[in-house]
Model the fold of this input.
Amino acid sequence: MSKANILIVEDDPLQRRLIKENLEQEDYTVFESASGKEALNMIDDHPIDIAIVDYKLDGETGISVIQDILEKNPLITPIMVTAFGNIENAVEAIKKGAYDYIVKPIDFGEFLLVIARALERLKLKKEISILQNSLEDKFSSKNFVFSSSKMEGVALLVSKASKSDATVLISGETGTGKDFVAKTIHFSSKRKNGPYLAVNIPSLPETLIESELFGAEKGSFTGAFERKIGKFEAASGGTIFLDEIGDLPSQLQVKLLRFLQEKEFYRLGSSQPLKSDVRIMAATNKNLEKLMKEEKFRPDLYYRLNVIHIHVPPLQEKKEDIPPLVDHFIRKYNEREGKEIKEISAEAMNFLLKYSFPGNIRELENIIERAIVFCEGSVITSVDLPIFLKDKKEEELIQEGLSLKDKVKQVEIREIKKALLESGKVKSKAARSLGITERILGYKMKIYNLFSDQEH
Ligand SMILES: Nc1ncnc2c1ncn2[C@@H]1O[C@H](COP(=O)(O)OP(=O)(O)O)[C@@H](O)[C@H]1O
Ligand SMILES: [Mg+2]
Done:
């Protein structure tokens, strides 16, 4: 089997034959062309991997041929052949997109090594592009599951943020889907073919955060044995996701702010400013307003980050999303486990709807994953659910036979009554414990005909 398809673009028939013979000995399939025009026709008709292009062609330069080839098919790797002593041509060719150059008279040992290296890179490039496509697919907006009006609002912001290049701040409890939102935005934005790099700030020791983000020169700190490229540099052309931004130490808050303002940063131990074209998205499960009041988070940084603010509500506030999410996770884990589970029983669903999900969607996903592994039949039943879900007092059960909307209403009424009772009927306190604003609590109390004694 041929190792790769190689196209020779060379107007000298003798030279062409020499290259062809050497390549064919190594089991490459060789195509020949004497001009740029012929080369472009060849590319249309054959799946070419590498193009060997001579610099001096009849009436044109190899550089313009390389540009034309890349314009037609950017996955082809061009290699320039140039006469000895014309290195500046080779440098120009590389600037215009050639992968490497070979000097005439050709040393075929070296020539074959260059080809092998180019193929190695090509393989990597193809793998990355496949990976990128599957990620794109995974985080396309069609996998963004919801039915609640709250998430409709989030989805609208996600779509707005995908069309923009502005900084995004995503807030919400753990497991609500903050990473998921950030990835969905990146993979539907114009940066989708660029890198997406995530940094979880609390997982890094404080002394390493700076070099991790901005890079470090060799010897700039103990343990810096060689130059380190930071995430800001590596993510150029793409997006960097700063997870748990509330934990960023204050001297790094200053550096991040400078980057947001000037698009410039310094490697640790260097005074040379560097630029990077990277979009920043940040997430937090902490209340940044509170951190600002406590002077733990800089307001100027907050306003720079908060250009587009997306708040992802906890699952408890959008129980309508549970059934479609359950369906989605059943499909996902059916595929992984090779099972054909069709649905979940009404009783089991009822247990899920009654549960508070402190771990939000992540917890729901784990519960369904586990249920799929345990489930023997074609329907998930309450037997497949963890014990703690079912360990509820009788009065907390929701009436059967109601529509989903009414069940959710019952849950809301029950939780609001409970919160009012526990807060001594102080509305502001109850609202806080429910994780909603006092205004929304007031609204809900009005529509459900619930009154706190404060008002009456
Ligand atoms: N709207 C959604 N639709 C489908 N899956 C979701 C959605 N939101 C979150 N998930 C899934 O829930 C899990 C937790 O989400 P993640 O983004 O890691 O949460 P967070 O960063 O807020 O802790 C992930 O496996 C993610 O794929
Ligand atoms: Mg996360």
Q: What stands out?
A: The mean pLDDT is 88. Residues 178-179, 243 surround magnesium ion (ligand 2) (CB under 6 Å). The longest strand covers residues 77-83. The domain at 164-313 is CATH 3.40.50.300 (Rossmann fold).
